[in-house]
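Homework help board

Subject: predicted structure for assignment chain

Our instructor gave us this sequence and asked us to write out the predicted structure in token form, then describe one feature. I got the tokens but I'm not sure how to describe them. Can anyone check?
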Amino acid sequence: MAGKTAISGIQSYWIALERALFEPIEGETIVDRLAKRPWGCDSPAVKKAWDDLTHPNNFQLLKNWASEPMNASSREITDEAIKVCNARIAKARAGKSST
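My token output:
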């Protein structure tokens, strides 16, 4: 299990994402919003929160978070966040090696 410092380090990103998810955009109901996964949402606020959460600097924090017990939905979102974060790291490394 991760320590309290690791959890508090990533928790603010999860809170921002949750807040964005519960603020539907015009023409969208809360049910519509919650039926979408964060990485497939059209809301600019959700996109920003997802981008912030999956920033390469958060990789280790996400890995630590993933060691905590969680429900299946949270596990799915956490696993996807780690996957996206890892892809962003790889992309950044590829960009550096080609210059």
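Reply (TA_rk): Your tokens look well-formed. For the description, you could write something like this. The chain has one domain: 4-97. That's the kind of observation they're looking for.
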